Amino acid sequence: MIRAVTINDIPFSCFDAGSGHVLLFVHGFPLDHTMWSAQLDYFQQGYRVIAPDLRGFGKSGGADDLLTMQQFSEDLHQLLDVLEIDEPVTLCGFSMGGYIAWQFALKYRRRLARLILCDTKAAADNQEVQMNREVVASQVLQEGPDFLVDGMIEKLFAPISGQTQPEIVKQIQKVIRSSSPLTIAGASRGMAQRIDAQNILAEIDLPTLVLCGTEDSITSLEEMRQFSRAMPDAEFHAIPGAGHMAPLEKPELVNHLIQDFLSKTDV
Ligand code: MLT
Predict the structure, then answer these.
(1) What angle do CA 249, 250, 253 make, to 5 degrees?
(2) Could you identify the atom of ligand 1 that is nearest to the CA of residue 28?
(3) Which residue has its alpha carbon closest to ligand 1 atom 4?
(4) Which domains does the chain have, with CATH numbers?
(5) pTM, whole model, 2 decimals?
């Protein structure tokens, strides 16, 4: 069920279904909560699944020319308050959602029971990537998001997914095309300013599941394996044949690994 929630006078749209322990799904860039559809369908049988459209994305308001990971994580914290969720939740972040998860873990550790990190990075952007983010921000404000679609789709999916699952590629093309240019610019700039989470890995003592598609061309499998080793209580799994969008490309395996992780780290 989609519910409307107001946070600091900004209207947010949030998927909320099921009951029990809360799984909070945080989408990537420039997407919305629908990227989690296979996880939301599956996990609402045994859990309460919450998946907001982040500030400015999807059907949520609040687009701005700078949207930081701190801001997104404060929004999530307030969302839990507004939904009257006091017990610690499992936060599952994909890519930019993972950058937000680091920030959330740093500031709101007591609100978390576990972390699930899909196709994301711990390292901050280098200067070249930061400069490229600014180029994207300026271009999207002038031209709109169409130019991003082709360039990003190639990077988001394993080549085989385009042939065998054209419907998920179309789904994501549509979401990118309908994203707010101001939000894309704001989140690009926000990602460029994000913290280097490599410095805090040892402090994040939550049970953590780290997943990465073997064909991910945005996030390096090796980098994810390395950062999971630097965390006190993390396990890493590769998702064979998936690109960056592993939760959408290989939902059965991703759901199975998440279910297994939830069962064995009962909190
Ligand atoms: C995402 O999928 O959220 C983005 O590709 C992350 C990024 O651009 O670093």
Answers:
(1) 165
(2) 3
(3) 29
(4) 2-264 (3.40.50.1820)
(5) 0.98
